[in-house]
Target: Type IV secretion system protein virB10
Amino acid sequence: MAFIAFAIWSTSGKDNKDQRTYPERVIIRQTNAFEPAKEKVEPVAPVPAPKTVLPIPTLEPVPEIEDKLLDSARRAPVLAYSREQDKSPVRQSGDNPAQSIDGNFLPLDSNAMSQGQVSNDEQRFDSLLRPTRLEGARAGTLGNRNFIVAMGNSIPCVLETALASDQPGFTSCVIDRDVLSDNGRVVLMKKGTQVVGEYRAGLQRGQKRLLVLWNRAKTPEGVIITLASPATDALGRSGFDGHVDRHWWERFGSALLLSIVGDATSYASSRLQNSGVEAQDTMSAGQQAAAIAVEKSIDIPPPTLNKHQGEIVSIFVARDLDFSDVYRLRITEPKNRIFDRAVLGDFKPESKVVTK
Model:
């Protein structure tokens, strides 16, 4: 019995030992780093900068030096004259130059003159400091080159009329070849186009060329266009050259006549004096008549330039000529036929005769 009781007690004691609960172990850890308490920041008043006082040097007054000559020159009377009107001279006192009786009087002030010279020098210097302003340029297109005669082309032309620079007038010429477009594909002005221009009179002394301006061109089909281009010679020099009449006999013939008349009257006077005949009045009258004739003919016209008809001149195109409003292009034959004719050398126009 004792053994059974001990066995029962021992088994019950093990079960209670196994069912005993123990309290959980709590572990305390530091998750964030330690930060000390922040101190409160208080604003600090700005420290004023120390003021430095520079000593001011004392200037001694400069004694004024009296110049007796300068003072007397300032007090001297001034005379003002008017060149436009005949007036008596006006006397002005140097003590009070502001009061002026004559409006043509200008007070002389050396300070004003020096200031004006300085301002002119400053303006000249400022003008030298200014750079040259150059405007930019943008590229563009010429347009449809099939209908444009570009500026800078030279068109030969044959004069129809002669020119004389004594009087202003008009002239005309005929273009002796076809004028092509800028790309050389289209004939814009056919052979036989008439061009009309104008020229001014009054060739200056020493000049040998006459300026001519071509105004308008008219094609055989009746198409007109304004040229407004200058005339040149065959080499492109501006103006027309030609035979220049300097009017030599008109210029020096009167002087030769006066000298001949003077020599003749002197010779006749000496012969008459040797024979005892007095003819002073007659000889003086002849010399006076010759002098009057020379005086009347002294106004010689300027040189005259003569240009004959039939000579070859040129037209310098001064602007782009646009024919797009007048002409239109159309296909007359296919490209393969044009190529075949070009290869075979057949440049004759196609016959329009219909055969059966």
